[in-house]
Structures are given as structure tokens and as C-alpha cells.
Structure to design on (81 residues):
């Protein structure tokens, strides 16, 4: 589910604290009112989060993360480690 950011249209709010994040399914329409204070809100364009890998994963790290690790034996033949 994507993460959306909203902020009140009329400035800061003491109840919701101004800008807030909300997880919503992509097929739902954007919020019109804050769920806490019921003031009108607008959707804010936010930064995207991309993972940054600094080094390749080892076989043990990949297995502990739940991935299946295969090694190539010959052309078209792979063996699971």
C-alpha cells in the first residue's frame, strides 16, 4: 500500500499536528478531511523511498532474507544451494 502525505489547507492544527502520513489503497480517492480534526486537507507530493545497497548480499544473507539461491552448473542448468 502506498504512503500518502496530507497537510491542512488552513495552516497548522493543534489536534493533528499539521502534516501527517497515511497508508491507503491506491484505488481509494484522496482524503478531503483530516481523520482527527475534520479540517479540509490537501495531498502533498513527497519524496520516494528507494533502498540503497552498499554491497552485494552474501548467500547466507540472501537465504536468511527468504530468497532461494541458485548456482549455475552448465548452460541452462542451475542447482539450488
Amino acid at each position: 500500500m502506498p504512503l500518502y502525505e496530507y497537510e491542512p489547507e488552513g495552516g497548522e492544527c493543534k489536534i493533528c499536528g499539521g502534516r501527517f502520513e497515511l497508508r491507503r489503497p491506491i484505488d481509494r480517492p484522496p482524503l478531503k478531511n483530516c481523520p482527527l480534526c475534520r479540517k479540509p486537507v490537501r495531498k502533498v507530493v513527497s519524496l520516494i523511498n528507494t533502498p540503497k545497497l552498499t554491497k552485494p548480499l552474501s548467500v547466507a544473507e540472501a537465504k536468511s532474507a527468504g530468497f532461494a539461491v541458485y548456482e549455475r552448473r552448465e548452460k541452462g542448468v542451475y542447482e539450488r544451494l
Q: What stands out?
A: Strands lie at 3-8, 20-23, 41-44, 70-74, 77-80. The helical segments are 59-64.
